[in-house]
Specification:
The chain is α/β, with parallel strands linked by helices and 359 residues long. Helices cover 18% and strands 28% of the residues. A seven-stranded mixed sheet has the order 5-4-1-6-11-8-12, with helices on both faces. A six-stranded parallel sheet has the order 14-17-20-23-26-29, with helices on one face. Strand 2 and strand 3 form a beta hairpin. Helix 3 packs across helix 6. The radius of gyration is 21 Å and the shape is elongated. It starts with a strand and ends in a 10-residue tail after the last strand.
């Protein structure tokens, strides 16, 4: 049996208002909850049992995914009443695992989209005889991430969380949020208090002489912590830039879900998704965006790289560029919003009230 723990308990505050009513892993990307893509990729890699470590809005996961049989998996749900950090969540999930002390357990962050070779990560872990193996990737600006320098053989040398000084920039390799743990390492994580694997568990293991192994994988990787990244991830999934068995359709410039209505003369492209029951009027132009279920895009509206929440309305000739519109918000005609503007759920903006808005 190959087992995995998926960390899906975060509040997703950086994604608000998308996450006010929906936990981040359940926000739709390419037509299905983002979590569906992670589960599908895990299944394709040979995982057969996944423990979902939940906390925020935990009650919404099981009604959608059930016991996992419809997805070819066995799912177990473990819920924290109080968030205990990444390490605490992994430790809480341990009681649902069947793996023996020396067997490998995959752990994935619930907000990362990646084309990682999961079997390759497991194989490298076994060959190295590691206590923990980390997926690493390279980024141009690593200041928002945890740096992980490695030796030539992949042995991890240090951990630096979110470096701010030039002398801390010792590598462009960052912790990419996927791991293989020996089960006994998980069992050694303290219980009953918050624990960060990044700031406590991994540095502690390194100091104790444990073997931590890093695998640099240059496949597609994107942290979905911010709205612009989430919208980009959805578009990349629709277009097939990164492949997921969970996408309900073939790769293309747009995805229109059953029950949606797109009138003749509307333009869709750039990996746009139009959700069930949504309506895009003639003359509207929607590029690289997510239009959630029941939303309305009126005639002449122009939308770029934005997310329009469930049941929201975008009025005629209104322009959105890099914007998030919360569920059931009403944006009147002839408005212009751009550069990271976020409109909260249920908000009403009158006609011609805003011509420019920056984050």
């Amino acid at each position: 049996m190959t087992e995995a723990v998926l960390l899906v308990g975060g509040r997703g505050t950086r994604l608000q208002p998308l996450t006010l009513n929906t936990p981040k892993p359940m926000v739709p990307a390419a037509g299905v909850p983002f979590l569906a893509h992670q589960l599908a990729r895990a299944k394709a890699a040979g995982v057969d049992h996944v423990v979902l470590a939940t906390s925020y809005l935990a009650e919404v996961f099981e009604p959608y995914f059930g016991d996992g049989s419809a997805h070819g998996l066995r799912l177990t749900y473990v819920t924290e009443d109080e968030p205990l950090g990444t390490g605490g969540a992994i430790r809480s999930a341990a009681g649902a695992l069947a793996a023996g002390p020396g067997e490998p357990v995959l752990v994935f962050n619930g907000d990362i989209l990646t084309g990682l070779d999961i079997p390759g990560l497991l194989g490298s872990h076994r060959r190295a005889g590691a206590d923990v193996t980390l997926h690493l990737t390279r980024v141009a600006d690593p200041r928002a991430f945890g740096l992980v320098p490695t030796a030539a053989d992949g042995r991890v040398l240090a951990f630096t969380e979110k470096p701010q000084h030039p002398d801390e920039m010792v590598t462009d390799q960052i912790n990419a949020g996927a791991y293989v743990f020996r089960r006994e390492v998980i069992d050694a994580i303290p219980t009953g208090r918050p624990v960060s694997v990044e700031r406590e568990t991994f540095p502690g293991l390194l100091a104790s002489g444990a073997l931590l192994h890093g695998v640099v994988d240059t496949a597609y990787w994107l942290d979905l912590g911010r709205p612009a990244s989430f919208v980009q991830a959805s578009a990349d999934l629709v277009r097939g830039v990164v492949r997921s068995p969970a996408v309900p359709g073939e790769p293309g410039e747009y995805l229109v879900l059953p029950g949606a209505r797109v009138e003749d003369g509307a333009l869709l492209g750039g990996g746009t998704v139009v959700g069930a029951g949504a309506h895009v009027a003639a003359g509207a132009d929607v590029e690289g965006s997510v239009v959630l279920e029941g939303a309305r895009i009126e005639e002449g509206a122009r939308i770029r790289a934005s997310m329009v929440g469930a049941g929201a309305r975008v009025g005629p000739r209104t322009v959105l560029d890099g914007v998030v519109i919360g569920d059931h918000a009403e944006i009147g005609a002839d408005n212009e919003l751009c550069d990271g503007a976020r409109i909260w759920c249920g908000t009403t903006i009158p006609d011609a009230a805003i011509r420019f808005s920056a984050a």
